[in-house]
Amino acid sequence: MKKTRAAAIVFLMLMGCACLLAGYLAPASYAEQFREIPNASCSRQHWLGTDDLGRDRLSRVLYGTRVSLLLAPAAALLTTLLAGVIGGAAGFLGGWLEEAVKAAIDLVLSMPWLFLLITVRALLPLNVPPLTSVTITFALLGCLGWAGAARVVDADAKALAHSEMALLARASGSGGMRLLWRHILPNLKPVLQAQFWVSIPVFILAEANLSLLGLGVAEPLPSWGSLLRELENYSALTAQPVQWIPLALLVLTVGSFQLALNREEDWA
Amino acid sequence: MNLRVRLAALLIPLAALSAFGQPGSQLRFCIRTDPKTLNPLMVIDDAGQTVRYLTGGVLLRLNRKTQQLEPALATAWKVSSNGRTITFTLRANVYFSDGTPFSAGDVAYTMERLMDPALHSPVGDSFRAGADKVRAQMLGKNKIAITFPAAIVGLDKLFDQVAILSATSPRKEMAALGPYYLSENKPGAYILLRRNPNYWKHDAAGRALPYIESIRLDIQQNREIEMLRLMRGEIQFINSLDADNYDVVKARAPEMAVDAGVGLDSEQIWFNQVASAPIAAYEKAWFTSTRFRQAISESINRADLARIVYRGHAQPAASWISPANKVWFDRHLPPYRYDPNGALALLEQEGFRLKNGRLRDRAGHVVEFSVMTNAGNRSRERMAAMIQQDLARIGVKLNVVTLDFPSLIERITRTFNYEACLLGFVNDDLDPDAQMTVWLSSAENHQWNPSQKTPATAWEAEIDRLMRLQASTLDVRKRKQAVDRVQEIVREQEPFIYLVNKEALAAVSPQVRNADPVALQPQVYWNIDTLWMGSGGGKR
Predict the structure, then answer these.
(1) What ipTM, to 2 d.p.?
(2) pTM value?
């Protein structure tokens, strides 16, 4: 099992390097259309062939990896922070605040998030560059994804606030803020770490879902989700096997995150 | 009767049966949804139109191939010189599917129902020409004159959509005069139509039509499943295919692939010219500049759009009327030019300057705007991405935005909070009069600047005048001249920048004999009464 975990971590590191070095590794711009050779198969010039508009598929996979792998952790960080603040405060302070937060969590979790995202995105300004657009998409995902994590943090913070350790700290004269800062937050760290790692694949998949609906990353910027749209047409199942690469990367990356997370859970 | 004659009498029908109307022969194809209504006067959706086409008996039928009207339940017709009255001579000895006889009384009853204000018939709306009532005067058992309060252009062609109802049948709308009648309706699953034994039409050899015994319309929303079912032989045709699926069919079963040539639908891009739109004033100045629009149009490589996005199954557009419309398309219009240098020259005349690869207007604003299109439409998304690269060549930065359809409609019809939009128009009417709601400046569908109280520009005022002229004269030559002039103005002013006309693509099993798909709807089964089912492969 340790070997599998190690392999997963190595894979994630390789993916991280690939996306950071996309500018050096990509043989062409992800947006450049080689219009004379759309849907080309693998060649010396285009290792993974070209897409339906003649864009180099390898370049798009590399840049798409960068978009998905950099912005998904950013969204996960935002979600974890929100969950930590909201869930932590509710669990620590308790009373009406906790009841209100629990009601808000139930409300957010019961909402059809996909439709909510579509609605919120439709209200945003139209004339924004693709990079801003994708950042907004992931920021929205981050802002809407806090509820599940907040419930876990709330339960943990409540348990800590009523633990013998907290009782001892209070008896020793620790006030509210000091108790929170010095005793509760450090003990919440493993839970928050776990929530962070769990959120990353969730956001990668969420962006892929949005892109499959045509509502994710704007053209010409690629992401794994937008690259997966090549598989919409069932002719793609057999025509060009390289079209499966974004799906393979997505599955391997999400799987690797889960394997890497197991260790985090062991710690927790 | 001697033995030979008896044998011949027995064998001829048997031979006919084996060649055409095989007992139990069934044609199956898919429709996307259940029809919203089975009342032929209230049809508004594609599924309803399919059922109406297959079951409804009409006085006149537009031949989808020749684009000419042909007699159906009426053997002759005449439109009066003032364009208000149409007189039909009806076919004698015709019966509805339930055996009820057909007469002028049924036509009068149908017109009465059609024009009933309480019914709100969408078909009836085409006939509304004034406040007064429509009068149907029976001139005998088989002759009827229908008078409208005002002249209606293309009056006779409108009767292609009017399925005649029975005034006396207890089955009401279900009694059919068309080739088939509704036998079974399982909502969400299928609709079964059976051959109308009383259908009036016969083939040249005197055999009763239609040849096919029954038609099963399966409700199937998923296009991929529809494709799989076609390949498995569970359905016999797909009426309308996109370019991707057409190529799949062509690769796997080339004998099924049919390209019926350029269709009536168009794809276009337009700029928001609404004066009150919540966009920057300098952007409004760009969008209302004719030269700016012409320059954008000239910098778009339409041939590439047709070749790459539609895999060669589209043609660069030339006008708001497709070349498939044999009567109304202006063949003198030159093709759109692709000339990025010419586009830059036009922009320079308007005060724009290309500096460091970015185009700036007279005041120094960088030319950057967004184009929105409906999410999920791969062809439009691909076109937008290609136009993005084309415009980058003249220093224009285009941001592509895909929105869900309701949000997009909200922006183009209510808030006007957008810069440019890429959409298509689906046309199923050959007569340009049907597009009055687009071209009149006061119309709600005048997308670039809808519902104007008075025309914002001189050329829109001229289009208003010409479109009203073509709608008020019965002289076909004058109408054609007016419509040609509108095509020229639109071409010069480019309120809509037309991109491509898609080709009508279909897949038809070789089992379906006599199929001759055309560009006009319904592409594959327009000649349903002469289609027949053969066994196995062979020539269509």
Answers:
(1) 0.82
(2) 0.84
